[in-house]
Design brief:
The chain is α+β, with helices and mostly antiparallel strands. Helices cover 29% and strands 20% of the residues. Helix 9 packs antiparallel against helix 11.
């Protein structure tokens, strides 16, 4: 062969090899796909107040600290920290290898190093109520304008200091929430109110595209700082979030393998997929796996007990004995068995869910099904067998109509007539928050892993619409215990306050605790490394997918 021919042949082989390598790399790209039945309204961590937003935001942003799968606080951008002897000051020491994701707002388009001043900016931004949904959590910071206190400051580029008003043992757990993620000031200044549509953080995945109502696509952050052993995270090349709001259509997409995970008991037809014992039916066991663990979530019925509101003024539910009777008149065991295929735990030990570290639910005796006791209470309230008791309206959303109907039937057996009112989601939230609804079905998901987060729903200073006390329950002893528990440093003493607070709730019955939920996910068999935890946080940085 002559030399020119050999040169052409070599070039041909090289180009063929490059093309082949390119196709091979394309085939090897791993994209994790999950469907969101709800709506993502913003990718700004300051607006991360619902699961749909939080899950997506968690892939893009980091904070000082993070929660592990045992719901314990671990380092993140802060590699270490110290707490002062009086419990009022936290000093965080930042890693030196954390960079914001690339964006045109940075010089040369390259993401810059994260500094302590970026946390100062990000925390300060949360006090802007037009941007932030974190208002309830900001009261802990020691801010006093007259004394020049902001509650936090950058001591230098690598040291961030946080000051709180009083010692609060659960404070680090609050800082794991996505609200407290770090954001770059120059990118926020560039996009202004559109930052939630053009997010830039430090997380394992970067925002790529958002097709309204159809898809959000995130791509691998090649400069992410965390590692597993010697391997840089994440393993996935991309994350794709679809928005198929029809449950059956989403389920079919999962069966076809077009989606890698669907999440939540309401994301599929439980009677079709699960046995009565809450396990996967045999026909599905080889097709995908089910992940499940206790969820820090309590589903309940709430009574508006504040006599000052129009909805409560003439309601028979202002009578404690009637509220107690309703609590005794509902069979929670049967509800879990027949409506939820044994997914969940009957709330017979109070309002605080199972799964919180060092919290013994058995210290509290709640309500169990006792129709005879319910009838006795109705008699004592002046309504023997329910005679003379006005019809009570239970307001709910369409999603929980079957549960409401089950409750209606059970209460009819003790003489309590219930009318079910199905309200559109937005109107329902507004009605409950503004005390327009006297009897409602609602749930509470833990923001951080401490009982105080659940008991805050009954604190007298947390009345809605500014707080989360939707029942407008107020009890002097309860509020006193709440104030003491907030800042008690002794774990055992603080728990004793919690137990007593729950016993007050059982006696006064401003709510009917129904059940404590479980995290439920259906996951394709080619997915590994997807962890599950009691906070139901979606962490994709460790996930691997076999194509």
């Amino acid at each position: 062969m002559n030399k020119p021919f050999l040169f052409v042949l070599a070039c041909f082989c090289f180009l063929s090899s490059c093309s082949s390598d390119k196709e091979e790399r394309k085939k090897e790209r791993t994209i994790f796909r999950y469907n969101e039945l709800g709506i993502v309204s913003s990718l700004d961590p300051a607006a991360a107040s619902n699961f749909e937003n939080i899950w997506a935001v968690n892939q893009i942003f980091n904070g000082l600290v993070q929660m592990d799968d045992s719901i314990l606080v671990r380092p993140c951008i802060a590699k270490t920290w110290e707490q002062s002897a009086d419990g009022l000051k936290y000093v965080f020491h930042l890693r030196s290898d954390v960079f914001f994701q690339d964006n045109a707002s940075f010089p040369g388009g390259k993401g810059r190093k994260v500094l302590a001043s970026d946390f100062e900016y990000s925390f300060e931004r949360l006090f802007n109520q037009s941007v932030s949904k974190a208002a309830d959590l900001l009261e802990y910071f020691d801010r006093n304008a007259s004394e020049g206190l902001k509650g936090f400051y950058a001591k230098n580029d690598s040291t961030f200091v946080v000051q709180i008003k009083k010692p609060f043992p659960a404070f680090l757990g609050i800082l794991t929430m996505k609200f407290f993620s770090v954001v770059p000031h120059e990118v926020v200044a560039h996009y202004k109110s559109d930052f939630g549509r053009n997010p830039v953080g430090t997380g394992p995945f970067c925002f790529l595209v958002w097709k309204e109502g159809q898809k959000i696509l995130l791509t691998k952050n090649e400069n992410y700082f965390e590692q597993e052993a010697e391997h840089k995270l994440p393993y996935l090349d991309a994350v794709s979030i679809s928005f198929i709001h029809d449950r059956e259509a989403a389920w079919l997409n999962f069966l076809k393998g077009n989606v890698d995970m669907i999440s939540g008991f309401d994301a599929f037809n439980a009677k079709e997929v699960l046995t009565s014992g809450g396990e996967l039916k045999h026909i599905y066991k080889n097709r995908f796996t089910m992940q499940s663990t206790p969820f820090l979530k309590t589903d309940y019925l709430g009574f508006l007990v504040n006599d000052g509101s129009a909805a409560a003024r003439n309601s028979p539910l202002r009578i404690k004995a009637i509220r107690q009777a309703i609590n005794y008149g509902i069979d929670r065991e049967k509800m879990i068995k027949y409506l939820r295929n044994n997914i969940g735990t009957p709330a017979v030990h109070g309002f605080v869910p199972q799964g919180l570290p060092d919290y013994d639910n058995n210290q509290v005796t709640g309500y169990t099904y006792n129709p005879e006791k319910a009838k006795q209470l109705l008699y004592l309230a002046g309504f023997p067998d329910g005679k003379g008791l006005p019809e009570i309206t239970l307001s709910t959303t369409k999603q929980y109509l079957d549960l409401a109907d089950h409750i209606r039937f059970q209460l009819s057996q003790i003489g309590v007539k219930v009318l079910i009112e199905v309200v559109e989601d937005g109107a329902f939230r507004e009605g409950v928050a503004n005390s327009k609804i006297s009897f409602f079905r609602k749930s509470w998901v833990g923001d951080f892993p401490d009982p105080i987060n659940f008991l805050a729903l009954f604190y007298g200073n947390n009345f809605s619409p500014n707080g989360s006390n939707y029942t407008h329950f107020r009890n002097v002893r309860f509020d006193c215990l709440y104030d003491k528990a907030m800042y008690e440093q002794s774990d055992s003493l603080r728990r004793s306050y919690y137990y007593e607070m729950e016993r007050i709730l059982i006696d006064e019955a401003p709510v009917v605790p129904l059940y404590h939920d479980r995290v439920v996910r259906l996951v394709q068999n080619n997915i590994t490394g997807l962890s599950v935890n009691a906070m139901n946080m979606l962490n994709l940085k460790m996930v691997k997918k076999i194509n």
